[in-house]
Design brief:
The chain has 454 residues and is mainly α. It is built from 19 helices and no strands. The radius of gyration is 22 Å and the shape is globular.
Length: 454
């Protein structure tokens, strides 16, 4: 390769080119003050809704805080608030603000996954690598097989998929949707259930990360076949692998001095925190630019950050603002694009229930069987299957892309939203039923951390 002829300006131009159509807006009618006024009011309402619905979910439904926040995001959108008070909803959440919320949402979920990466126990992964890979492969293969069976039926129903889409592309898209595990929400559930430092938590989170990365790569292939060109898939898969390999091979050594500085000084200075956040933003940028997702850049970098006092100081400084202020914007942004009222006939309801049943069978069943085949006991395998079946807002992200790009129609979009909400709400109760209660009773698993209930 002739490196002298590489046009860096052209490469950067491609990276910063448009990544799809903009959210419908009339931004020229808004002054900076207009954005500011709406933004602060939105944040106040978002935080209030997430705290209240999260509390109600814990108290009355036994759901973790994060599931309540997911539901709060849907409530603030057109499915409930916009249905009963459309004028008020449109005034508080005008379409001109969507891009602002999107940016804050990406910062929140990216930072959270960065913090989750710092808790990843690589020693546990080494001992559970066989199980994690087995669960991951099963969690991808079975959903795509189920998608292969059901998609030809769905393609034949008008309005579910775009006119003219091939059965192969539709199958790939459905397979990616069913194979997804709610990586960010899975991380929140694992933390809130006291599983962050356990082998089961590490196994499940690692398998979920692989499954989500694979689903995003498949989505890149579908977008390429749907008109974006093969370069989209090549850049996403190739760029993501190269960056992840660089981080895993060299990141720990390059970042180790930061840990030594914190240990020597006894605290994390603003300079060290600033350098750390620069590294996070860079990693998130690279993964976003190649077409995977910023959260994977944050998570991979977090996995190689120094542990010990560095990780503890980082969590103390960054986590409260991330969890309480930034992350709820992620849930609300997705909720603003969700329309559950689109499933408005008996036929569509039956199809939605069929998609839900097929998705649970493919993900829960396959991950359970894979864990058993890898040597896990029945109780642990059931717990893994319950957690891996959660799809959460990663599902909402990918289907929003499908809707925006014209791959699926509003009715199928709403069916997949329903599947995402139900499978996520199933995760914690089923985990506690199959594994959590007995493990906590025997002392094998610690009690749920008090901070997770707040």
């Amino acid at each position: 390769m002739d490196f002298n002829n590489i046009d860096l300006v052209a490469i950067l131009a491609d990276v910063f080119a448009k990544h799809g159509p903009a959210a419908p807006a009339l931004a020229q009618t808004y002054s900076p003050t207009d954005f500011s006024v709406h933004f602060f009011l939105q944040l106040a309402i978002i935080i209030l809704a997430c705290r209240v619905v999260g509390w109600a979910g814990r108290k009355f439904l036994g759901q973790p805080q994060v599931v309540g926040e997911m539901i709060a995001g849907v409530i603030l959108g057109p499915s409930l608030f916009g249905l009963f008070m459309p004028e008020a909803q449109a005034a508080i959440f005008p379409k001109e603000m969507k891009n602002v919320l999107y940016t804050g949402a990406q910062l929140g979920v990216g930072l959270y996954m960065f913090l989750v990466g710092t808790t990843l126990r690589l020693d546990h992964f080494a001992t559970k690598a066989k199980s994690a890979m087995g669960v991951s492969v099963a969690g991808i293969a079975a959903p795509f097989f189920i998608a292969f069976l059901i998609t030809p039926i769905l393609v034949g129903i008008p309005g579910l998929f775009a006119d003219g889409i091939s059965t192969a592309n539709a199958t790939l898209f459905m397979g990616a949707c069913i194979a997804l595990t709610a990586f960010p929400m899975l991380a929140r559930i694992i933390n809130e259930q006291g599983l962050a430092n356990t082998s089961l938590g590490t196994l499940t989170l690692t398998a979920g990360a692989f499954d989500d990365a694979a689903s995003w790569c498949v989505l890149a292939l579908v977008l390429a076949a749907f008109g974006a060109g093969p370069g989209v898939a090549v850049l996403a898969i190739g760029g993501g692998v190269v960056w992840a390999a660089f981080i895993m091979l060299f990141g720990r050594k390059l970042l180790a001095p930061l840990g030594r500085i914190v240990e020597r000084e006894g605290h994390m200075s603003n300079t060290v925190l600033g350098i750390t956040l620069i590294c996070f933003c860079t990693s998130a940028f690279v993964m976003d630019a190649v077409g995977i997702h910023a959260i994977f850049g944050g998570f991979i970098l977090g996995a190689v950050m120094p542990r010990g006092q560095f990780a503890a100081e980082l969590k103390k400084k960054v986590e409260p603002l991330t969890v309480i202020l930034l992350l709820p914007m992620f849930f609300t942004y997705s909720g603003l694009n969700t329309r559950l009222d689109m499933i408005n006939s008996v036929e569509l309801l039956l199809i939605a229930l069929g998609v839900l049943l097929a998705s649970v069978l493919a993900k829960f069943g396959a991950c359970y069987l894979a864990a058993r085949m890898a040597g896990e006991d029945n109780r642990t395998a059931l717990g893994i299957g319950a957690l891996m079946n959660s799809r959460g807002l990663m599902e909402l992200i990918i289907i929003n892309i499908g809707l925006q790009k014209g791959i699926i129609g509003p009715a199928l979009f709403s069916m997949l939203v329903l599947m995402a909400v139900v499978t996520t709400m199933m995760a914690t109760p089923l985990f506690e039923l199959f594994y959590g209660r007995k493990a906590r009773g025997s002392g094998e698993l610690a009690a749920i951390p008090a901070g997770s209930r707040a």
